[in-house]
Amino acid sequence: MKKSDIINHLSKSVGMSVKSARECFDIIFECIIDNVQKENVTIIDFGRFEVKTRKGKMARNPQTGETFSVPDRDTIIFKTATSLKKKINKNKRGEKLICAG
Fold this sequence. Notes:
- The protein is an alpha+beta fold.
- The chain contains three helices and five strands.
- A hairpin with a 6-residue loop joins strand 3 (about 55-60) and strand 4 (about 65-70).
């Protein structure tokens, strides 16, 4: 499922234009992105977004053999909610889960 599929589903489910659905979708993700930089973002029954710092390390260029230092960096981690894991694991045949609506 792609972003456009989600937007189309939202548009049909709520009865709004595709343009309005796209704006809503973008606003939600902008909110998540802006806030995850300051604190964890938790969406009940879906999961939690959080920023983790990965420690720096020494790395090696495989072509030249030169070693260099990779600095610490922040990355976004997503942890799936237990309730979502249970829903996914109920689907034992490997079929796609369809959005209710």
